[in-house]
Amino acid sequence: PQDELHVVESLELPSSDPQDLLELARARRWGHSVLLVDTNEFPENISAAAEGLKSITLIPALGLNVHSLLKHRTLVLTLD
After folding, report:
1. Which CATH number fits domain 5-78: 3.30.540.10, 3.40.710.10, 3.90.650.10, 3.40.1370.10?
2. Distance (Å, whole) CA 53 – CA 49
3. I need a labelling partner for 21 at 20 to 30 A (CA). Which of 10, 31, 35, 63 fits?
4. Could you count the other beta carbons within 10 Å of the beta carbon of residue 71?
C-alpha cells in the first residue's frame, strides 16, 4: 500500500491529550499502526500523549530497528 512512509518537519501537539495525537494521526491518514521516529528526545506533549496508546509507538532514531519497522504499518520520520 502507498503512504506508509511520512516525513514531517517536526512533531508538535497543542497538549498532552492522547486524543490530540489520535486526531493528528487521523487527519494525516497515518492509519492504525504508527511508528514515530524522532531525535533522542521527543517533545513532552508527544511523549505524554502516546503513553498508553497501542496504535502509536515512539522510538528514537538511534533505537530504530527492523523489528519495530515490521510491527507497524506506517513510519513517520521527522526532519529535526
Report:
1. 3.40.1370.10
2. 8
3. 63
4. 11
pLDDT-derived band at 7 (thresholds 50, 70, 90) equals very high
How far lies 77's CA from each of 8, 38, 61, in Å? Answer: 6, 6, 9
Report residue 15 as a C-alpha cell. 497538549
**pLDDT tens-digit series, residues 69-78:** 999 999 999 9
Q: In this model, does residue 54 exceed pLDDT 60? A: yes
- d(CA 33, CA 8) in angstroms, rounded, equals 17
